[in-house]
Amino acid sequence: MNMALNFDWLTNLLAILFVVACLYDARYDEYGTLTLSAAVMGLVVMAIEVFLKPAFDMSL
User: Fold this and answer.
1) What are the distances in angstroms from CA 3 to CA 7, 25, 28, 29, 30?
2) Which of 46, 40, 2 is nearest to 18 (CA)?
3) pTM above threshold 0.90
4) The dihedral sign for the CA sequence 15, 16, 20, 21
5) Which parts of the chain span the membrane according to its record (predicted)?
6) Structure confidence at residue 21 (pLDDT)
7) CA 38 to CA 11: how far, in whole Å?
8) Regions of the chain short of the pLDDT cut 70
9) Residue 60 confidence (pLDDT)
10) How many Å separate Cα 56 from the centre of its chain?
11) Which of 9, 25, 39, 55 lies 20 to 30 angstroms, CA to CA, from 48?
12) Which is it for the CA torsion 22, 25, 27, 30, positive or negative?
């Protein structure tokens, strides 16, 4: 159960994806859609970690 509530690996993966999206967008995409989508995914993961993890911890 502790492994399922560990968001560190997902946060690191999204940080790498964000850097790759920034590099791709700087070269090929004029609107920055990949950078924006990677940033939104990072915010969603952080929101899940902040709001849902304490509820899981209290239930254990």
Assistant:
1) 9, 34, 38, 37, 39
2) 40
3) no
4) negative
5) 7-26, 32-52
6) 81
7) 11
8) 1-7, 56, 59-60
9) 63
10) 19
11) 25
12) negative
Question: What is residue 3's predicted lDDT score, i.e. its pLDDT?
Answer: 56
Asked if residue 24 lies in contact with residue 16, where contact means CB atoms within 8 angstroms, the answer is no
**Comparing C-alpha atoms, which of 38, 39, 53, 56 is closest to residue 8?**
53
∠ CA 33-19-51, nearest 5°, is: 80
CA 8 to mean position of chain CA atoms:
10
Amino acid 6: pLDDT: 66
- Measured CA to CA, the distance from residue 27 to residue 47 in angstroms comes to 30
